[in-house]
């Protein structure tokens, strides 16, 4: 019986070490906490089941790939079912999330515009920006996660940042410093 328990320890450890990262990746892609919790749980089950096949050096990138794929599956399912005009959960969130001081108002507006602009990016551009800039993965980890050559990923990241900047300049020119 001890043998079976000891064989589960590496899987449990992998899930524990990467659970927060997996959740953040799916939350950034799905933008819905409940759906992200479901997708993260699904991803963590897949991570737990497939742990033995992955070399230790690429586990973080592999976990991100599994999380991204689960989030994309949820997005595909979401598109196939009708959505309510307004999410009641979002409408009921406390206003405390919106900064009240004037100096924070501009920052909050910029964050909203950035979220909107990020939502307009197609895949894999959006995933690249989220994994690299939000989650802080190394270039090689992002490339491995998305199964892209490193140079291709760097080009896509450059294009994604350019598209984000263009979208932000159009949406909120007064918030974006123009070089």
Automatic annotation (TrEMBL):
Question: From what organism does this protein derive?
Answer: Rubricoccus marinus
- Superkingdom of the source? Bacteria
Native organism taxonomy? Bacteria, Pseudomonadati, Rhodothermota, Rhodothermia, Rhodothermales
GO MF terms listed in the record are: DNA binding; sigma factor activity
Q: What family name appears in the similarity comment?
A: Belongs to the sigma-70 factor family. ECF subfamily.
Cite a single Pfam family from the UniProt record: Sigma70_r2
**Segment Disordered: which positions?**
78-108
Give the RNA polymerase sigma-70 region domain ranges: 14-80
| The RNA polymerase sigma factor 70 region 4 type domain, residue ranges | 112-164
Which named protein is this? HTH luxR-type domain-containing protein
GO:BP terms for this protein?
DNA-templated transcription initiation
Keywords tagged on the record:
DNA-binding, Sigma factor, Transcription, Transcription regulation
Does the entry feature the keyword RNA-binding, yes or no?
no
């Amino acid at each position: 019986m001890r043998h079976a328990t000891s064989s589960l320890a590496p899987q449990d450890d992998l899930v524990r070490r990467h659970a927060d990262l997996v959740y953040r990746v799916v939350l950034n892609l799905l933008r819905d906490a409940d759906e992200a919790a479901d997708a993260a749980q699904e991803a963590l089950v897949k991570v737990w089941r497939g742990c033995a096949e992955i070399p230790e050096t690429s586990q973080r990138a592999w976990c991100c790939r599994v999380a991204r794929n689960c989030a994309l599956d949820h997005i595909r399912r979401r598109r196939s079912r009708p959505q309510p005009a307004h999410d009641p959960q979002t409408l009921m969130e406390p206003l405390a999330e919106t900064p009240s001081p004037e100096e924070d108002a501009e920052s909050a507006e910029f964050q909203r515009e950035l979220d909107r602009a990020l939502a307009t990016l197609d895949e894999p551009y959006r995933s690249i920006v989220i994994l690299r800039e939000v989650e802080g993965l190394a270039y090689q980890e992002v490339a491995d996660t998305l199964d892209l050559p490193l140079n291709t990923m760097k080009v896509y990241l450059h294009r994604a940042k350019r598209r984000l900047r263009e979208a932000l300049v159009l949406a909120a020119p007064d918030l974006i410093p123009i070089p």
